[in-house]
Specification:
Elements: H1 3-12, E1 42-43, E2 54-60, H2 63-70, E3 76-84, H3 93-97, E4 104-111, H4 118-127, E5 136-137, E6 140-141, E7 147-151, H5 154-170, E8 180-183, E9 186-189, H6 197-200, H7 205-221
Parallel strand pairs: 7-8
Antiparallel strand pairs: 1-9, 2-4, 2-7, 3-4, 3-9, 5-6
């Protein structure tokens, strides 16, 4: 990792990758939305991905935000919002919001390693949230908003730990990085209304006030790595 890569953090985070209060994050599902219908879990042995594609699973706060960001990255086939890291099977959004399920709001990324590397995904992960705040991203508070990398194999673990060590050495933040790096076990896709939430609801207050500014800054920082429109 060179110094130019590190500098991107200084450009991105203090310049306004801030977080607003997602009113529904601690108060149940948005008005008018259905509760959960059963979803099929995704685990190590049922990835159901295209030949040659790989999976990456991250938690970095509100999945509405992170899904919208990674969906715009070239080489990402899809990003799915969901829940991972907990002990409750087929959890609902309301359950996860209680902070008692052990799950983190997460996204599972299907990506083409011939177009985007796992290291590049890690770069976006680290640059688009604050990995120094325990169980919190801005006004979104609770263990479901923790910073976590769920590695799928030994190589992903090695790359994630190496990247974190280099960031610690560079002292990018004034506080230590507390991101968890843990083995992936299960991923439960979130309710349908959470999928592509930003693209489907750009005028809603949380989207326009919080997510849109993030997307604009992401486009500036990663302008050479965006999907072609």
């Amino acid at each position: 990792m060179n110094r130019l890569l590190i500098t991107g953090f200084l450009l991105l985070l203090p310049a306004g990758f801030g977080y607003g209060n997602r009113s529904v994050s601690r108060g149940g599902i948005p008005d008018g939305e259905p509760s959960r219908s059963p979803q099929k879990e995704v685990n190590k042995n049922s990835m159901n991905q295209k030949t040659g594609f790989k999976l990456a699973t991250f938690g970095s706060g509100c999945f509405w935000c992170t899904e919208a960001i990674f969906e715009r990255l070239d080489g990402v086939e899809k990003a799915v919002s969901g829940y991972s890291g907990g002990h409750v099977e087929n959890p609902t959004y309301e359950q996860v919001c209680t902070g008692t399920t052990g799950h983190a709001e997460s996204i599972q990324i299907t990506y083409d390693p011939s177009k985007v590397s796992y290291d590049a995904l890690l770069e976006v992960f680290w640059k688009t949230h604050d990995p120094t705040t325990k169980n919190r991203q801005g006004n979104d508070i609770g263990p479901q908003y923790r910073s976590v990398i769920f590695y799928h194999d030994a190589e992903q673990k090695k790359l994630a730990e190496s990247y974190k060590s280099k960031l610690d050495a560079e002292r990018i933040w004034n506080r230590p990085i507390i991101t968890e790096i843990v083995p992936f076990t299960r991923f439960w896709p979130a309710e349908d209304y959470h999928q592509n939430y930003y693209d489907n609801n750009p005028s809603k207050s949380y989207c326009s006030v919080v997510i849109t500014p993030k997307i604009e800054k992401f486009r500036k920082i990663f302008k050479d790595r965006l999907k072609k429109q």
